[in-house]
Amino acid sequence: MLTHVPKRHPVIPLYLAFRGLARAIVAVWRDPETKALPLVAGALVLTGTIFYWRFEDWTIIQALYFSVVTLTTVGFGDFTPTSAGTQIFTIIYILTGLGVLVALLSSVAQQYIRQKTESGKVRERLSARRRHTPAT
Asked: How far apart are CA 79 and CA 58, in angstroms?
């Protein structure tokens, strides 16, 4: 005998993952020990964007793109600093920004994992209660 199992909509797991990620980001923001990390990361991106926009004569979008690609270590190579001054800034920018971004991303990941672990424990407790509740 075959039973029909309803299909889940493919967008639901994606939505749940993004919701969990958003909750983890909010938790990082609320934690006094990690609260400054999003601000520092944002300040770094803004600083790089303004610097490259001003000294490389790129558009704001190009400068923002380069800043994000550089800090995330993707480095597509489609834009490169052209002067010795901007190359030195980029070296310092990478060394500083990489540490901040790693700290931010690891804090978000830690919060995400903590929330997943806690929600699993809640599910287990609810399941155990249901099993031990006498039927009426």
From this structure: 9
- CA dist., res. 89 & res. 26, Å (int): 32
The single residue listed with the structure tokens 């944002």 is 42
Proportion of the chain in helix, strand, coil states, percent, rounded to 5: 75, 0, 25
- Give the fold, CATH level 3, of 24-123: Helix Hairpins (1.10.287)
What b/e readout covers 34-66, taking b as 16+ CB neighbours within 10 angstroms?
A: beebbebbeebbeebbebbbeebebeeebbbbb
The pTM of the whole model exceeds 0.90: no
Q: How far apart are CA 23 and CA 1, in angstroms?
A: 42
pLDDT digits over 76-125, tens only?
A: 889 999 999 999 999 999 999 999 999 999 999 999 999 988 887 767 77
What are the sequence ranges of the domains in the chain? 24-123
What distance in Å separates the CA atoms of residue 26 and residue 53, rounded to the nearest whole number?
31
